[in-house]
Write a structure and sequence with these properties.
Blueprint (H helix, E strand, L loop, with lengths): L8 H20 L2 H4 L6 H10 L4 H15 L5 H32 L3 H11 L3 H17 L4 H14 L9
């Protein structure tokens, strides 16, 4: 006979807080993603209604939705939501990596130039010209036009391939 220990009050509170965070995330996602999740029509309608509410009412609505969702199995919906958000997270990571490379190039890191040339077939001369222009703009305290061009060039050469961390 399996005798299961009752959950502690703290464990129940942690689970409910986690559920509330999940509901808060659901309120913020677009309708196109919300429709793909395996949620009941009642929960989906309440989430849509919560989007038009102000702070206090929104907090109460999130609590209400969480209380009603406690009976539903949310594991599948959480996994699917994570899978839906993954492309956006990947794009953000790519963007941050490009910013990092741009800053390192302007900072004078020549190892990145070699890596970009070998791994992404970048034009060494164009890279150096963009870096030189960016450095001159920074010295003169001008608008970072060349730095933006350098970023756009990095994005162009890496758009077809998966970005990996160079040296």
């Amino acid at each position: 006979m399996d005798h299961q220990e009752p959950k502690s009050k703290s464990a129940i509170k942690r689970e409910f807080k986690s559920l509330q965070e999940f509901v808060r995330t659901l309120v913020e996602i677009p309708d196109s993603q919300l429709k793909k999740l395996p949620l009941s029509n009642f929960i989906t309608d309440e989430i849509v209604r919560a989007r038009s509410m102000s702070k206090g009412a929104l907090k109460r609505q999130i609590g209400y939705i969480s209380k009603n969702m406690a009976d539903e199995a949310t594991d599948e919906a959480r996994e699917l939501l994570a899978a839906l958000k993954q492309p956006q997270a990947k794009a953000n990571a790519h963007f941050h990596q490009l910013e990092k490379w741009r800053d390192q190039l302007i900072g004078g890191d020549d190892a990145i130039v070699d890596t970009l040339v070998s791994q992404y077939q970048a034009d060494r001369q164009k890279l150096r010209q963009l870096v030189r222009n960016s450095e001159q703009e920074a010295e003169r305290q001008l608008a970072p036009r060349a730095a933006r061009q350098l970023f756009q060039y990095l994005r162009k050469i890496t758009s077809d391939q998966e970005v990996s961390e160079p040296l």
